[in-house]
Amino acid sequence: MDLLQDHLTRARASGGVFARTVAVPPWGLTLAGTIQLSVHTVVQGRAWLWFDDPGQAIELAPGELALVRGGRAHHIAHEPGAECSDHTEFLARPAPSEPAPGQRLTVFLCGAYRFSGDIGQGLLDALPEVVPLSAGVGDPLHGVVSVLSQELSGDEPGQQTVLDRLLDVLLVLALRTALRQSPDAPRWFRASADPRVSGALRAMHEDAARTWTVPELAAICGLSRAAFARLFAQALGQTPMQYLTDWRMAIVRDHLRTTDLTLAQIADRTGYGSPYALAAAFQRHHGMPPGAWRERRP
Fold first, then answer.
1. Which domain holds residue 26?
2. Residues 25 and 114 in one domain
3. pTM of the model
4. 144 and 251: one domain?
5. How would DSSP label each residue in 60-104?
6. Mean pLDDT for the chain overall
7. Are residues 156 and 238 in the same domain?
8. Mean pLDDT across 139-164
9. Which CATH number goes with the domain that contains 208?
10. Percent of the chain whose predicted confidence (pLDDT) is above 70
11. Is the domain of 236 the same as that of 96?
12. What is the rounded distance in angstroms from the CA atom of residue 79 to the CA atom of residue 295?
């Protein structure tokens, strides 16, 4: 079980829109903060990305990407502080003419991703507001961006399927790199690379419904119960059983929000012997019964 893949699958992460744009100065685009996660990469030329202060703009050169988490609107343009239009107006602009002497044509890609539920929000919350990434030659990100650019430059049979798969790959590679670089990456992500506890984490994610015990989890990691409990607490900041409960509750909330499964069915999938046991655990964890939580779900 790959923990990042498990989170992405349960978050139902998917590419919403993706576009290849050719622009000649002056140009500028504003993207709303309601986009949960966007990615920008320049294939040719230069672009600048900023939020409120153009003085804090990030330059994007070919081979560089930026992941932008939702919250505040952001701008991308040929130079910091350029006048920007919203997505609809930008797409309606006349086709670019040939650049004048000294002007630099820019080819860039913009994508938007959607996430679902608390697990998806947890992934987003683990990211800084903007994450600059470099995709040099030899980096898998570089290859994916190149293929995306080529695919978007024409209209080929089966193109949407190709784009969907490439977007999936781009998202996983970019998130993996971003989380590795982030000092605030979730503890489960850092711990998933620790061979002393990673086996237990994978086991709990692979079969959250199993009645796990600390000795069983310790045995998976080849450690004594005491050593495992100590190392797990150091890596995750909580006991193995607390982590398991938190993960089960995240799955329960996901089912309550996105499915019509009964409490009995959810209990069976999350390791609770009955809907009553699940309801009691949910009440302790959230301060309200699951039925009431489901009724007021966003």
1. 3-181
2. yes
3. 0.78
4. no
5. E-TTEEEEEESSS-EEEESSTT---B-HHHHHTSPPP-PPPTT--
6. 87
7. no
8. 79
9. 1.10.10.60
10. 94
11. no
12. 48
Query: Among 155, 181, 207, where does a domain finish?
Result: 181
| 178-209 pLDDT per residue, tens | 888 888 888 999 999 999 999 999 999 999 99
236-272 pLDDT, tens digit each: 999 999 999 999 999 999 899 888 899 999 999 999 9
The CATH number assigned to the domain holding 42 equals 2.60.120.10
> Sorting pLDDT into bands at 50, 70 and 90, what band is 100?
low
167, 201: one domain: no
Nearest to 249 by CA among 270, 226, 276: 270
Q: Does one domain contain both 219 and 142?
A: no
Amino acid at 137: V
> Please, which contacts does 187-192 make with residues 24 or more away whose CB atoms are closer than 8 Å?
187/235, 187/236, 187/237, 188/3, 188/236, 188/243, 189/3, 189/4, 189/126, 190/235, 191/235, 191/236, 192/3, 192/4
**Domain total for the chain?**
2
Q: For residues 109 and 153, what is the distance between their CA atoms, to the nearest angstrom?
A: 11
User: 220 and 239 in one domain?
Assistant: yes
DSSP type of residue 85 = B
Pick 96 or 244 by higher pLDDT. 244
Over the stretch 118-137, which tens digit does the pLDDT of each residue have? 788 888 888 888 988 887 66
CA atoms lying within 13 Å on the CB side of residue 249: 19
Closest by alpha carbon to 28, among 74, 66, 62, 72?
Answer: 74
Strand positions, DSSP E, 115-217? 130-134
Residue 227 vs residue 23, higher pLDDT: 227
Instruction: Please tell me whether residues 177 and 195 are part of one structural domain.
Output: no
Structural tokens at position 109: 């890609």
Peptide bond into 26 cis (omega under 30): yes
Residue owning tokens 């930026």? 66
User: Which of residues 181, 211, 226 is at a domain's end?
Assistant: 181
